[in-house]
Specification:
Blueprint: H1 5-10, E1 14-18, E2 22-28, E3 33-39, H2 46-52, H3 54-64, E4 66-69, H4 77-84, E5 103-105, E6 108-110, E7 120-123, E8 135-142, E9 146-147, E10 152-154, H5 155-161, H6 164-173, E11 175-181, H7 189-193, H8 198-208, E12 211-216, E13 219-226, E14 229-231, E15 238-240, E16 268-272, H9 280-293, E17 294-295, E18 304-308, E19 312-316, E20 319-320, E21 324-329
Parallel strand pairs: 3-4
Antiparallel strand pairs: 1-2, 2-3, 4-18, 5-6, 6-21, 7-19, 8-18, 8-21, 9-20, 10-17, 10-19, 11-13, 11-16, 12-13, 14-15
Helix pairs in contact: 5-9
Amino acid sequence: MISSIQKLKSIKAQKVTDSAKVNYSVWSKDAGFPLVIKPTTAGMQLNDWVADNRQLFEEKVKTYGAILFRGFHINTVEKFEDFSKLYADTPLEYNLRSSPRYSVGKNVYHTTTYPKEYSIEMHSESSYAPSHPSNIVFCCIDPADQRGETPIADTKNVLQFLSKKTRAKFSEKGVRYVRNLNAAFGLSWEEVFQTEDKKVVEAECYDKGISYEWKSDSNLVLTWNKKAIWEHPATGDQVWFNHAYFFNKYALEASFFDLVETDDQLPNNTFYGDGSEISKEEIEEIREAYQKATVVFPWEKGDVLFLDNMRMAHGRNPYEGSRQIIASLF
């Protein structure tokens, strides 16, 4: 994975074709994504182009999995919220949260408040949740002073980079998620469920097939299973779509273990679906698979990145200075 912002800026997108209205290119020749779409005339509105070319746009998403709109100047929350209304028929609120976020508009969120000196590991948005978004769309209101990229990885390739043995184990067993909701070590249950009513939490768990146990009034433990490998509904490809790596104890920053005495206190952990441990070696194998499948580009103010959530995982590199990247789920 490319780590230098200077090297990133020296990379030129591979030209694919031109039209009277937009220019198409591919950022990474080797990976084949993301598709970069730029206007060829000044003042062209992204909303108008997508509305007028909806079928074409959806075909591009199916082909590439990731589209970077650049040069359309979607550089305010209001402009991005207006763009997101094109998909207002199927919005998805950020529920069963795994990181602190705050709303900046209708179904528009600041990406995360996670400390900027740390990386956010590669993951597929809400793949752990009973209901996950089909698409996630990012918008760069202000890029970081240094770094702060949003790496993306094709989950079809991630799966292929895993050994046959590891793929077979996850295919057979799936993933068991364990979340220990306790504000002392992570997110509170109130933050995760966006309510202070225990009955509402219990009803949602029952509805979603999640087992729950109240350890105390402030400590709730959730357990549920989900597939690790999925068939993409549009392409039929097998994809690596889960949080087995992201939530696993071996993927955590080493300093985090100074805060807890036992694994039971960790805010998240993952196991195979039968409850057996995912080994440290297997987690390292998954990390390497993500790295091999990852493409990185530098954000520019006004960029919009549209991702097929099952096809493209994403993360966040550390950064310096201020940074405002917002997102919407569909």
